[in-house]
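FW: tagging you since you asked about this chain on Friday. Here's the raw sequence from the shared folder, copied in full. Didn't touch anything.
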Amino acid sequence: MNFKSLEVFYWVVNLSSFNKAAVKLHTTQPAVSQRIAALETELGIKVLDRSARAIKLTAKGRVLYDYAERFMALHAEMMLKVAEDQAVSGVMRLGVAETIVHTWLVEFLEQCRQRYPNLIIDIVVDITPTLREAVKSGELDMAFLLGPQQDGDLIETALCSYELNFLSAPSLKLGKEPLSNSDVTAHPLITFPKRTYPYTYLYQELTTPEHGSPRIFTNWSLSTIVRMAEDGFGVCVVPRLAVLKEVEQGRLKVRRTQLKLRDLSFAVAYARGSDQATKVALAELACEVARQAAAGPRRRPRAKPVER
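HL: got it, structure written out here
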């Protein structure tokens, strides 16, 4: 029995799918099935209950899975602590919330490339609820998303917090700053969807018996929110750091308000598993890059002039 067979078996069980395991291991479903069959032949046991519709372990299969999990974790830990960084290889499927894309994702990928040149990172940009479910199901290995949450299925570590701001097109007439609540609600508000902190807080603080609830337009796409604000549709509520370019170019203006907002927090989330040591290393790197981004843009050394 070789390590590859244990790896295939582990991922079939962990992802509850022959097909997902094949995608994870960059092979075909028939090849995965052959590995499992060969493993059963070599051990002289059945590890999977073929009569069940879903992936179901036999009694011996459960014992083998425990050993496979320990082997996989030990292998990942060994590769990180003993081998050179260049030996850390494979594919890490990373989900990212759009706010992170607009702040420090490129710097994170650059540092990953320098530290682990043989590690490939596949990026999926999506909304936090979708990313969270994808990490739970095994479709993604880890994600940078809104959080952390108290979720027993995932390991979550705080990454960064961004100050939320009211921003609008400079041409939008809002009144004298700091803007009162009535000044703010005189125009539509544009922010993240109902399950997020910005929406719930704005709805709670700006709803009054006299005027009812504010007009809040929501979208998970930061680009869409920003475009609506730039076009003068209303006032957006997003982290200023995520729209720094728009502010510097004069397309958006930060508006001071009497209403104080709490920071928007993000976390790195991943499931326990065989490659946990690699995930921990990447999570620590992400925290480091996020701290650097919060401290301000990194100044790159100027190129020395060529002597002639």
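FW: Residues 299-308 have pLDDT under 50 and may be disordered.
HL: agreed, and The radius of gyration is 24 Å.
FW: great, closing this out.
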